[in-house]
Specification:
Blueprint lengths: L12 H11 L3 E4 L13 E4 L3 H16 L21 H10 L7 E5 L5 H10 L2 E6 L2 H20 L8 E5 L2 H7 L10 E5 L6 H10 L8 E4 L9 H6 L1 H6 E8 L11 E8 L1
Parallel strand pairs: 3-4, 3-6, 4-5, 6-7
Antiparallel strand pairs: 1-2, 7-9, 8-9
Helix pairs in contact: 2-4, 2-5, 3-4, 6-7
The protein binds S-adenosylmethionine.
EC number: 2.1.1.360
GO biological process, one term: methylation
Main location: nucleus
């Protein structure tokens, strides 16, 4: 099984420092030797050695340790509210894969504690919007945002571009705020939807068929299944609307599982 509820929490500072030492100087190659599905997997390489990367990931660790509110990671009979995260090296890779720039608008649908928004805003300058149904998780994200903003200001290191955290259900948000076209820049959506109920993923898949051209959607439970020949016969529209690319996340790059697994990037064409 891909998802494990075994105890796999965010690495401690000590573990992180250890793995950081082991990594540096290090280019991580993602050329995915064992691919469990019959589609083309895209290889990418990302550098995670910059001082800015380590400065910011250390600051994130400090932030979540010091803020009072803590995220929800276990909810009986509501697995979809589990706010475990992608880890920073994976987020760096996402920045590269989606080519995120300061002109873009990045959405994290189900933003949990906000860590992805913060790293992307800090690294790229993109405008970031997080939608989170759990009030507790959204409060953690807002508290973390305030902490980080104050820290960065104190150190005169840098400041955040716009980050908005909205407490809402993705379905309601999308109905009220359809994605807009931007004069400059594109919409980018992260959907950490492995634990989402199927109807929620299906609702999002239908809604995003109307997304503006150039919108990229990164998902884990495939919005537009496309790996088998039959898929094109079942849903020809998805193939007309989207360019689909398949990837594999690397071991130890997500908090919810130590193994590797597939993810997809669909670009509205
Ligand atoms: C696995 S976490 C992902 C956190 C973050 N996006 C990341 O990748 O690090 C999924 C989050 O989605 C939220 N969520 C689940 N269903 C939702 C819904 N219908 N609307 C908004 N957020 C939802 C959960 O509360 C949880 O915090």
């Amino acid at each position: 099984m891909l998802l494990s509820h075994a105890k796999f929490s965010r690495p401690t500072q000590q573990q992180y420092t250890r793995s950081r030492k082991a990594m540096a100087p290090h280019n991580i190659h993602f050329d995915c030797p064992c691919v469990p599905f019959p589609t083309t997997v895209v290889a990418t390489t990302v550098k995670t050695t910059s001082a800015a990367f380590f400065f910011f990931t250390d600051l994130l660790d400090e932030t979540y340790k010091n803020i009072a509110e803590k995220r929800v990671v276990e909810v009986t009979r509501s697995r979809s509210l589990c706010a475990k995260s992608l880890l920073p090296t994976f987020v760096s890779r996402i920045i590269k894969i989606m080519n995120i720039t300061k002109d873009d608008t990045f959405y994290d649908f189900g933003c949990g504690n906000g860590s992805i928004l913060f790293q992307i805003a800090h690294s790229t300058g993109a405008s970031c919007i997080g939608i989170e149904i759990s009030e507790q998780n959204a409060d953690v994200a807002r508290e973390a945002h305030a902490y980080l903003t104050a820290k960065l200001k104190d150190q005169s290191a840098s400041h955040f571009p716009s980050i908005k955290i909205v407490t809402d259900d993705i379905t309601k948000y999308l109905a009220a705020e359809p994605l807009k076209e931007h004069a400059k820049g594109k919409n980018l959506i992260l959907l950490s939807n492995l634990l989402f109920p199927k109807p929620l993923t299906q609702f999002i898949a239908e809604n995003l068929r109307k997304a503006p051209l150039g919108t990229q959607i990164l998902c884990f439970d495939d919005l537009y299944p496309h790996g088998r020949t039959l898929a094109k016969i079942r849903d020809p529209e998805a193939f007309e609307l989207f360019e689909m690319r398949d990837y594999v996340w690397q071991k130890e790059s997500v908090e919810w599982c130590g193994a590797e697994g597939p993810f997809y990037v669909h670009t509205r064409k």
